[in-house]
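Working notes for the structural subgroup meeting. M.R. asked for a predicted model of this chain before we commit to crystallization trials. I am recording the input and output together here so anyone reviewing the notebook later can reproduce the run.

Input as submitted:
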Amino acid sequence: MIIITGGAGFIGSAMLWELNRKGEEDIIVVDDLGSTATEKWRNLSGLRFADILSIELFAELIERNAFDGISAIIHMGANSSTTETDADHLLDNNFGYSKKIASFCMKHKVRLIYASSAATYGDGSNGYSDAIEKLSTLRPLNMYGYSKQLFDCWALKHHLLDHAAGLKFFNVYGPNEYHKGDMSSVVYKAFHQIGEKGSLNLFQSHRPDYRDGEQLRDFVSVSDCTRIMAWMLENPSVAGIFNVGCGTPRSFNDLAAATFLALNRQAVINYIPMPETLRDKYQYYTCADITKLRQAGFSATLTPIEEGVKEYVQRYLSSENPYFDYKGEFPSPLA
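Returned structure, recorded in token form:
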């Protein structure tokens, strides 16, 4: 049996789809679905799993060692808001909760794949290398990144990373992020803004070495993320911290152009001032160094944004059913 925490969330539900696609159905989803207004539950519609547990119940069961026959835990559950101001909540939800899961996995020799974050790299002044020896040098810019950094350091100190894989996701986009609000990808926001206004707003640059819209990010398709995680499940000896990105920085202008092209519309971009509250915390450049992932054996080609954005916009965002939906022969979501 496989457990996915955050299984109704963006990357978690995409991973559930990936496992269904590979014929896996003995899966426990752990998540809180929130209010019906977010429609987070729709991420699970059409997918196959054995059971769903609340976060509170799962945390209680994991502390009691109440699970048998678990082969892997894919820990994607977290508060992923980079603007969250409740530091105690982030410590409890992202650090304390992760320690409970990790302790269970170490005790019972269960494979753990967990979500770290590229937010741990801060302003990037110490680079974007996922080498273990670089871990203690990183300085996140927000409490979310710090909560992820704390767990990475704890995992290293307690030798969890001898057996587990921590994944530093960069700028992920794709289906099943519809509930994320302000934390949704630029592609998602661009699609709706272009549809409503016919144009797209991007932040001006407030640095002389970057032109407006030329701030750079490593944009990665959620489907590539789930392929990497599935590969790690199939290769349990792969352990440590790994960047998950394409390894190629692209500008917001590039992403905007790809979105307009996918919509068959002429690009109309407005450059607006960045809020003062963001200016000292804004990353002008991110790029995943994926050398270690390649050296570990993952050799598949990663999706360029022109291809990934086109598929996301045309197959999902413009669709009557925009969610990942397993098309196998399973008769119902629950086993």
